[in-house]
Design a protein that fits this description.
Length: about 170
Amino acid sequence: MLVRRALPGGHDGRVHDGRVHDGRVHDGPVHDGPVHDDPVTDSPDDVAAVLAAEDRRYRAMVDGDLAALEELLAAGLCYTHSSGVRDTRDEYLAKLRAGYYVYRRAEHPVERVEVSGDAAVVVGRMSADVDVDGVPKRIDSLALAVWTRADGSWQLLAYGPTPPPG
């Protein structure tokens, strides 16, 4: 299951297997009110493109779609896991290929997107059920994703989770 909260600026709020309102899954409609009043961006199209890439990445993680991830992950990727382990693009893809990480569910409510030129930052949360080396884990982290645009496509350059306060 993959869920993401809608953002301001007319984003369609695509949601997979559920609806999100105030960060919780619901059966009702997607909340389309403002989450962040003033996203800094080159254009609303840039924000929409980054959100589409973010959606595609999470969907590919849950679906085990390595071909999609290969397109979405930048060559210089630094992927930090909630455990603190860091992987390069090749290391992360190899672990996914080997079944070391198997994502069963992922939710990624987005609080805001900041775009500056060919760089974008997505601020939000990641909640997931994932098997790590065969051991089921439940992850709930604040998340920061850094995207870069190359040849017109957005690719993930860095991902960093941190435990929520409290």
